[in-house]
């Protein structure tokens, strides 16, 4: 670091020996004799800026700037100049001519900051490389996430198709076999008077068991994929399912459907039905609630779904007294993914004594028009 005194009016300067060394001048040489050489050594791209800043410092009284300088022996260097205007006393306390003066001059220092600039450049390069790696990694993660979501979507589609297939198999194959078995038993029943008392009791039990099994297969087939969902739409399927669920579980379910619900796209109707189905199954298995409320609303922009119960709420992560977020199970994650695939929003608000499952799914004009055509064709 070297010091200087600069007179903005005359352009004359005094340099310390340290500053003369920084500039590459011979020790003891006067700045006014080396000013042209100093300016010539300033990097061509910085020369206009340096002159402008010097003029500004002459008027403002403050000097503060960095520039590149071509040292005669050391090559290109970064220099930092800082100074402030005050009454002239010279470097040796006697002014430029060895006499005191009240003239205003810039007193300052020049530092060689080449190493700092190199470190900054290296740090910038490291940051840029790190940022590039982060961006690359982020892009890879986004691609992987998109792939996983695509796979998740496909798995849910396959799951729904498999449920539909199993439902059809149960209804057609197993149902037909049970119907044939029932007909065979009917033939035996017509000759029941020829059977022993014990055989008659077994025949009666077999008839009852076949009837119960037929009903169970029919119920299972419809729960897997209710035909009403395809034939009559979401409203009819939900009414049928809620009525059957209440009868089987003993839970009183209040179903409130918007009169504007109508037909929706196939994907929306299946998703809403599965969310209601999964939510009520969770109420039955986990909540202990004896009541539940299902509300489905619709306006021009969205379909809203809300399922409430008055049970014990979702289990907390860890100890019961810790107020940490509830841990989502596979069923909850599936519901969330179904809503996400449709561009909607899903959340669960659970406290002790109350759990609310909410979903909002946007209704697209194209989907509504398509669903309307399906409804017209069905009717």
Keywords:
single chain, 379 residues, alpha+beta, Beta-Lactamase, Heat Shock Protein 90, five-stranded antiparallel beta sheet, 10 strands, 55% helix
Summarize the structure in short:
The model is unreliable at 317-329 and 368-379 (pLDDT under 50). The chain is built from ten helices and ten strands. The chain has helices at 17-23, 31-41, 44-60, 114-189, 197-224, 227-231, 234-249, 266-287, 330-341, 365-378; strands at 2-6, 13-15, 62-71, 75-87, 104-112, 252-257, 291-298, 302-309, 345-351, 354-362.
Structure description:
By secondary structure, this protein is of the alpha+beta class. The chain has three domains: 2-112, 2-Layer Sandwich (Beta-Lactamase); 115-225; 229-379, Heat Shock Protein 90. It has ten helices and ten strands. The chain has helices spanning 17-23, 31-41, 44-60, 114-189, 197-224, 227-231, 234-249, 266-287, 330-341, 365-378; strands at residues 2-6, 13-15, 62-71, 75-87, 104-112, 252-257, 291-298, 302-309, 345-351, 354-362. The chain has a five-stranded antiparallel β-sheet with strand order 2-1-5-4-3, sandwiched between helices. The protein has a five-stranded mixed β-sheet with strand order 6-7-8-10-9, with helices on one face. Helix 4 runs antiparallel to helix 5, helix 4 (114-189) packs across helix 9 (330-341) and helix 7 (234-249) runs parallel beside helix 8. The radius of gyration is 43 Å and the shape is rod-shaped.
């Amino acid at each position: 670091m070297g010091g200087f005194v600069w007179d903005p009016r005359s352009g004359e300067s005094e340099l310390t020996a340290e500053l003369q060394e920084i500039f590459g001048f011979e020790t003891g040489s006067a700045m006014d004799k080396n000013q042209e050489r100093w300016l010539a050594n300033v990097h061509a791209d910085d020369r206009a800026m340096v002159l402008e800043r010097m003029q500004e410092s002459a008027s403002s009284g403050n000097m503060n700037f960095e520039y590149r300088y071509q040292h005669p022996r050391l090559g290109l260097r970064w220099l930092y100049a800082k100074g402030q205007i005050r009454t002239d006393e010279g470097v040796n306390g006697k002014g430029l001519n060895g006499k005191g003066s009240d003239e205003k001059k810039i007193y300052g220092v020049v530092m060689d900051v080449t190493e700092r600039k190199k470190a900054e450049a290296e740090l910038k390069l490291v940051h840029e490389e790190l940022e590039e790696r982060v961006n690359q990694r982020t892009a890879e993660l986004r691609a992987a996430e998109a792939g996983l979501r695509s796979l998740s979507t496909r798995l849910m589609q396959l799951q729904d198709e498999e449920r539909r297939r199993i439902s059809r198999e149960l209804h057609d194959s197993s149902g037909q076999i049970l119907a044939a078995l029932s007909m065979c038993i009917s033939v035996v029943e017509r000759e029941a008077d020829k059977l022993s008392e014990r055989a008659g009791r077994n025949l009666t039990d077999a008839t009852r068991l076949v009837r119960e099994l037929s009903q169970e297969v029919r119920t299972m087939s419809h729960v897997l994929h209710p035909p009403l969902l395809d034939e009559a739409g979401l409203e009819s399927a939900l009414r049928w399912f809620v009525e059957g669920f209440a009868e089987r579980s003993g839970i009183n379910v209040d179903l409130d459907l918007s009169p504007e619900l109508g037909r929706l796209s196939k994907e929306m109707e299946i998703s809403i039905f599965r969310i209601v189905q999964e939510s009520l199954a969770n109420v039955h298995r986990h909540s202990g609630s004896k009541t539940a409320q299902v509300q489905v609303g619709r306006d021009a922009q969205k379909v809203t779904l809300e399922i409430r119960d008055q049970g014990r709420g979702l289990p907390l992560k860890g100890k019961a007294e810790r107020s940490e977020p509830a841990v989502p199970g596979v069923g909850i994650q599936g519901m969330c993914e179904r809503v996400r695939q449709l561009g909607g929003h899903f959340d669960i608000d659970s406290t002790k004594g109350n759990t609310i499952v909410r979903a909002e799914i946007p209704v697209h004009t194209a989907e509504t028009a398509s669903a309307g055509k399906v409804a017209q064709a069905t009717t």
